[in-house]
Amino acid sequence: ETVITTKDVRLYYGEHEALHGINLDFQKSQITALIGPSGCGKSTYLRCLNRMNDLIHDVTITGSFKIDGHDIYRPQQDVVSLRKKVGMVFQQPNPFPFSVYDNVAYGLRVQGIKDKKIISQKVEESLKQAAVWDEVKDDLTKNALSFSGGQQQRICIARLLAVKPDVILLDEPTSALDPISSAKIEEMLLQIKDQYTIIIVTHSMQQASRISDKTAFMLNGDLVEYGDTK
Ligand code: ADP
Ligand code: ADP
Q1: Which secondary-structure segment (H or E) carries 200?
Q2: Quick check: ipTM above 0.90?
Q3: Ligand nearest to the CA of 28
Q4: Most CB contacts within 10 A, which of 55, 103, 193, 227?
């Protein structure tokens, strides 16, 4: 099932054309890896999918972006609700500077959920899905920033999963982590992928081949190869 369709995507930083007409689709229950050398436009393309780029000074984007048939750049698109549907994880874990529990509960409270029992169930469920529950369950009131980088990254993923996104964008989520923490995140992504459309930017061919269904190779702002991951 195709969830995201992008056509002839061009992006200019000022006069500089950073993406030269990318056509790429993404399917539910699949992980697509975006790979290519540093500076080829992977992050730039990824950020178009949750509308992080068009709010930056002097950026021009053309082309079409549809998620579940909705043009996400149409004038009446509510960017806040788009961000709930399309969650993003960055290279550096960025938990909020408060407890693990409040990090994961945050999005639920923003949605107006008040029932403490429902919140606590969803917090537990999300931390379990993100494969970090066993490591934090006795310390839910501890500051999220007091945990290891790998744990912080999985707490961030739990925070994102709690609001039930359709799409998960990951921009080099394991580049700042040790191999064991990276492996935990890879294994977790394979566990959850059935329910989501997942796109991961990585510079590691090995990582792409371990976890992705599809691989898209970019070079100098172009998509140069796309297909089933071998
Ligand atoms: P990658 O993720 O593949 O390393 P990026 O998307 O970060 O590549 O960058 C693609 C190109 O766009 C590079 O030439 C980079 O210097 C340029 N670029 C990225 N972000 C900006 C920005 N905010 N302003 C101007 N140029 C940028
Ligand atoms: P509508 O589709 O009538 O705008 P919805 O309740 O379906 O209303 O969606 C609320 C908001 O979320 C709208 O701005 C919509 O474009 C956006 N939206 C809905 N589904 C998705 C999706 N899968 N991906 C991105 N944005 C979406």
Answers
A1: strand 197-201
A2: no
A3: 2
A4: 103
- Given this model, what pLDDT does residue 230 score? 87
Q: Which residue has the CA at smallest separation from atom 26 of ligand 1?
A: 13
Work out whether the CA dihedral 112, 115, 118, 121 comes out positive or negative. positive
Mark 35-64 as b/e (b = at least 16 C-beta within 10 Å): bbeeebbbbbbbbbbbbbbeeeeebebebe
Tokens linked to 87: 């969650």
The rounded Å distance from CA 62 to ligand 2 centre is 21
Its pTM stands at: 0.90
In Å, how far from its chain's centre is CA 97? 21
Q: For residue 5, what are the β-bridge partners? A: 25, 66
Three-state DSSP class for residue 30: coil
CA 82 – ligand 2 centroid, Å: 7
Percent of the chain with pLDDT over 70: 100
Which tokens in the block code for residue 3? 């969830």
The model's pLDDT over 111-151, given as tens digits with 9 standing for 90+, comes to 999 999 999 999 999 999 999 999 999 999 999 999 999 99
Backbone angles phi, psi at 187, to 5 degrees: -60, -40
CA distances from residue 72 to 22, 80, 100, 166 in whole angstroms, order as listed: 16, 11, 32, 14
